[in-house]
Amino acid sequence: MGSSGVYDPERPWQGQIDRDSVEVLLRQWLPEALERFGFEALWTPLRLIRQLADGNLEREAVLQVLARYPYLRIPPTPEVETFADVPDEGSFEDVARGARELSPEEDFYAEVFNLAVRVAQMPEPEAPA
Protein backbone atom coordinates (compact mmCIF):
# COMPACT_ATOMS: atom_id res chain seq x y z
CA MET A 1 0.00 0.00 0.00
CA GLY A 2 1.20 3.42 -0.79
CA SER A 3 1.05 6.19 1.76
CA SER A 4 0.48 9.92 1.80
CA GLY A 5 2.15 10.06 5.20
CA VAL A 6 1.01 10.14 8.80
CA TYR A 7 -2.25 12.02 9.31
CA ASP A 8 -1.85 15.29 11.18
CA PRO A 9 -5.17 16.18 12.87
CA GLU A 10 -4.04 19.80 13.12
CA ARG A 11 -4.21 20.18 9.32
CA PRO A 12 -7.07 19.60 6.86
CA TRP A 13 -7.02 16.00 5.62
CA GLN A 14 -7.60 17.09 2.01
CA GLY A 15 -4.17 18.70 1.80
CA GLN A 16 -2.40 15.64 3.20
CA ILE A 17 -3.35 13.10 0.52
CA ASP A 18 -0.86 12.64 -2.32
CA ARG A 19 -3.25 13.87 -5.03
CA ASP A 20 -0.73 13.33 -7.83
CA SER A 21 -0.40 9.63 -6.96
CA VAL A 22 -4.18 9.28 -6.76
CA GLU A 23 -4.60 10.89 -10.16
CA VAL A 24 -2.04 8.51 -11.69
CA LEU A 25 -3.94 5.54 -10.22
CA LEU A 26 -7.28 6.81 -11.50
CA ARG A 27 -5.85 7.45 -14.98
CA GLN A 28 -4.37 3.95 -15.03
CA TRP A 29 -7.31 1.92 -13.66
CA LEU A 30 -10.42 4.09 -14.09
CA PRO A 31 -9.78 6.50 -16.99
CA GLU A 32 -13.37 6.49 -18.28
CA ALA A 33 -14.79 7.06 -14.79
CA LEU A 34 -12.31 9.89 -14.20
CA GLU A 35 -13.50 11.53 -17.41
CA ARG A 36 -17.18 10.93 -16.59
CA PHE A 37 -17.30 11.80 -12.87
CA GLY A 38 -14.22 13.96 -12.37
CA PHE A 39 -11.41 13.76 -9.84
CA GLU A 40 -13.37 15.10 -6.84
CA ALA A 41 -15.96 12.31 -7.09
CA LEU A 42 -13.29 9.58 -7.04
CA TRP A 43 -10.21 10.77 -5.18
CA THR A 44 -10.73 9.03 -1.83
CA PRO A 45 -11.34 5.36 -1.07
CA LEU A 46 -14.74 6.14 0.46
CA ARG A 47 -15.87 7.99 -2.67
CA LEU A 48 -14.66 5.14 -4.88
CA ILE A 49 -16.55 2.56 -2.83
CA ARG A 50 -19.71 4.66 -2.88
CA GLN A 51 -19.48 4.91 -6.67
CA LEU A 52 -19.01 1.14 -6.77
CA ALA A 53 -22.05 0.64 -4.53
CA ASP A 54 -24.08 2.86 -6.88
CA GLY A 55 -23.08 0.62 -9.80
CA ASN A 56 -20.97 3.28 -11.52
CA LEU A 57 -17.59 1.51 -11.34
CA GLU A 58 -16.21 -1.94 -12.06
CA ARG A 59 -15.31 -3.88 -8.93
CA GLU A 60 -11.94 -5.19 -10.17
CA ALA A 61 -10.71 -1.71 -11.14
CA VAL A 62 -11.76 -0.29 -7.77
CA LEU A 63 -9.96 -3.13 -5.98
CA GLN A 64 -6.79 -2.39 -7.96
CA VAL A 65 -6.90 1.31 -7.09
CA LEU A 66 -7.61 0.64 -3.41
CA ALA A 67 -4.76 -1.88 -3.22
CA ARG A 68 -2.33 0.81 -4.41
CA TYR A 69 -3.88 3.93 -2.85
CA PRO A 70 -1.58 6.31 -0.92
CA TYR A 71 -3.54 6.08 2.35
CA LEU A 72 -3.08 8.53 5.19
CA ARG A 73 -1.63 6.56 8.08
CA ILE A 74 -3.28 6.93 11.47
CA PRO A 75 -0.72 7.79 14.15
CA PRO A 76 -0.45 5.39 17.08
CA THR A 77 -2.24 6.49 20.22
CA PRO A 78 -0.84 6.45 23.74
CA GLU A 79 -2.17 3.64 25.90
CA VAL A 80 -4.23 6.07 27.99
CA GLU A 81 -6.30 7.10 24.95
CA THR A 82 -8.92 4.89 23.41
CA PHE A 83 -9.43 6.52 19.99
CA ALA A 84 -7.04 7.98 17.45
CA ASP A 85 -7.85 11.02 15.38
CA VAL A 86 -9.00 9.72 12.02
CA PRO A 87 -9.38 11.89 8.93
CA ASP A 88 -12.85 12.24 7.43
CA GLU A 89 -11.55 10.52 4.30
CA GLY A 90 -8.28 9.19 2.90
CA SER A 91 -7.24 6.51 5.41
CA PHE A 92 -7.78 2.75 5.28
CA GLU A 93 -10.72 3.42 7.61
CA ASP A 94 -12.52 4.49 4.40
CA VAL A 95 -12.39 0.88 3.25
CA ALA A 96 -13.97 -0.33 6.49
CA ARG A 97 -16.71 2.32 6.35
CA GLY A 98 -17.33 1.82 2.64
CA ALA A 99 -17.42 -1.96 2.95
CA ARG A 100 -20.29 -1.62 5.43
CA GLU A 101 -22.25 0.22 2.72
CA LEU A 102 -21.80 -2.66 0.29
CA SER A 103 -23.61 -5.97 0.51
CA PRO A 104 -23.15 -7.31 4.06
CA GLU A 105 -22.35 -10.81 2.87
CA GLU A 106 -19.30 -9.60 0.97
CA ASP A 107 -15.96 -9.36 2.74
CA PHE A 108 -14.79 -6.39 0.70
CA TYR A 109 -12.45 -5.12 3.41
CA ALA A 110 -10.54 -8.42 3.52
CA GLU A 111 -10.43 -8.54 -0.27
CA VAL A 112 -8.86 -5.07 -0.47
CA PHE A 113 -6.46 -5.78 2.38
CA ASN A 114 -5.28 -9.10 0.93
CA LEU A 115 -4.78 -7.62 -2.53
CA ALA A 116 -2.86 -4.66 -1.04
CA VAL A 117 -0.53 -7.07 0.76
CA ARG A 118 0.11 -8.99 -2.48
CA VAL A 119 0.74 -5.74 -4.41
CA ALA A 120 3.16 -4.53 -1.73
CA GLN A 121 5.15 -7.77 -2.08
CA MET A 122 5.53 -7.42 -5.86
CA PRO A 123 8.98 -6.40 -7.04
CA GLU A 124 9.33 -2.86 -8.28
CA PRO A 125 9.49 -2.64 -12.09
CA GLU A 126 12.97 -2.05 -13.38
CA ALA A 127 13.69 1.33 -14.91
CA PRO A 128 14.50 1.29 -18.62
CA ALA A 129 18.22 1.37 -19.34
> What is the beta-strand fraction?
5-15%
Quaternary: single chain
Average pLDDT? 86
The end-to-end distance, rounded to whole angstroms, is 27 Å
How is the largest sheet built, in terms of strand order? 1-2
Helix content: 40-55%
- Annotation field: number of helices: 6
- Cα-atom Rg, whole angstroms? 15 Å
Would you spell out the secondary-structure blueprint of this structure?
Blueprint: E1 2-6, H1 19-29, H2 31-37, H3 45-53, H4 59-68, E2 70-73, H5 93-101, H6 108-121
Parallel strand pairs: 1-2
What does this molecule look like?
- With 129 residues, the chain is mainly α.
- Helices cover 47% and strands 7% of the residues.
- Strands 1-2 form a two-stranded parallel sheet.
- Helix 1 (19-29) crosses helix 2, helix 1 (19-29) packs antiparallel against helix 4 (59-68) and helix 3 (45-53) packs parallel to helix 5 (93-101).
- The chain starts with a strand and ends in an 8-residue tail after the last helix.
- The mean pLDDT is 86.
Q: How would you summarize this macromolecular structure in one to three sentences?
A:
The chain is mainly α and 129 residues long. Helix content is 47%, strand content 7%.
